[in-house]
Specification:
The chain is an alpha/beta fold. It has an 8-stranded parallel β-barrel, surrounded by 4 helices. Strands 1-2 form a two-stranded antiparallel sheet. Helix 7 links the parallel strand 9 and strand 10. Helix 2 crosses helix 3. The chain has a single domain, classed as NADP-dependent oxidoreductase domain (TIM Barrel, Alpha-Beta Barrel). It is built from 12 helices and 12 strands. Helix content is 35%, strand content 15%.
């Protein structure tokens, strides 16, 4: 955010919403809000481009040319942070990011966040956060990303077979060697994050977080605010559910993960669609915005957050500007909760996305 506005990392969600001050660019669009990650050396846009779908795997395939155009569209909208991982398309998403940022010095103007701690086994990913695996992954990611450093390197999932302290120590060495600039964690709870931070500085945490998946509000979100961890919320549009474009007739094919997501199975799917419809009506009536803009703004007004906006086609980013330059007050937050309580009677979380743990033979080693 601008120097004259309060630092959202040090405010409660309610106060952050009340004090957010819109800024406007010369072309009349609301400017992209920013947040410091550990200090001014890493200043990120509060919307980051998520690249899971670009990799194709679990999303019904990939269109590389469209992906390149999507990266350019994100840059045009003021996004300077791209989040990716080796698991996204088994390295394809990282390759796309690397190739897209290679021309015209783009890499120097952009921040790259990627991950480690998984390995491919046949056609799935399994957890492996051993120090040797992490070093191997870092080397491979640097090559695919066509860079000599990673701005934010995150443990993708905790590995029950490897003590957190060992994993943290491996990342600490990469930090000392200059291969990475900052360390983050993903899918770790508060206790696991505290153990990680006892070994090495951690600047970001990346959990699933959106209007429909709010498990982190009990512990991790307030912990992030207390410790000045920047929270990268993945699934901010709940795998497209909060885009406002889906209907009961929407179908998913191939290896699309939404075929196994309980939210997209009837009769629960109708509950979530009804919630989206009511949220959309509320947003349009009170703010002149769509449910998509409401969903992203809600995340930005919850604390020290960055919303990951997943996309694989440039038109999917067209509404980014509509999430900037306004805020939700306490009354709006309460009304949103009432809508959710009224429309969704059988809520489910994001647990289905967790990858398998280590094979028994490695866990016992």
């Amino acid at each position: 955010m601008s120097a004259e506005t309060a630092d959202p990392r040090k405010l409660s969600p309610e106060t952050a919403a009340e004090t957010a001050a819109p800024r406007w660019s010369t072309n009349g669009r609301a400017e992209m809000e920013t947040i410091e990650i550990g200090g001014p050396d890493i200043t990120a846009s509060r919307i980051a481009l998520g690249t899971w779908a670009m990799g194709g795997w679990m999303w019904g395939g990939s269109d590389v040319r469209s992906a390149f155009q999507t990266v350019q569209a994100a840059i045009d909208h003021g996004v300077n942070l791209i989040d990716t991982a080796p698991a996204y398309g088994f390295g394809l998403a990282e390759e796309i990011v690397g190739r897209a940022l290679a021309p015209n010095g783009r890499r120097k103007r952009m921040l790259i966040a990627t991950k480690c701690g998984l390995e491919r086994h046949n056609n799935e990913m399994r957890r492996n956060a051993s120090p040797s695996r992490i070093r191997e992954e870092c080397t491979e990611s640097l090559k695919r990303l066509r860079t000599d450093h990673i701005d934010i390197y995150q443990l993708h999932w905790p590995d029950p077979a490897v003590p957190i302290e060992e994993t943290a120590g491996a990342l600490a060495k990469l930090l000392q060697e200059g291969k990475i600039r900052a360390i983050g964690v993903s899918n770790l709870d508060r206790a696991q994050t505290e153990r990680f931070r006892a070994v090495v500085p951690v600047l970001t945490t990346q959990p699933p977080y959106n209007l429909f998946e709010r498990e982190i509000e009990a512990e991790l979100l307030p912990y992030a605010a207390q410790t000045e961890l920047v929270l990268l919320a993945y699934g901010s549009l709940c795998r497209g559910l909060l885009s406002g474009r889906m209907t009961a007739a929407t179908r998913f094919t191939g290896d699309d993960l939404r075929r196994v997501d309980p939210k997209f199975q009837q009769p629960r799917f109708d509950q979530y669609l009804n919630a989206v419809a009511e949220l959309d009506q509320f947003a349009r009536t009170h703010f002149g915005k769509s449910v998509l803009a409401l969903a992203v703004r809600w995340i930005l007004d919850r604390g020290p957050t960055i919303a990951l906006w997943g996309a694989r086609r440039p038109e999917q980013l067209a509404a980014i500007d509509t999430a900037m330059g306004w805020s939700l007050d306490e009354a709006a937050m309460h009304e949103i909760d009432r809508i959710l309580d009224r429309t969704i009677t059988t809520r489910v979380g994001p647990e289905f996305m967790a990858p398998p743990a280590a094979p028994a033979d490695r866990a016992a080693a």
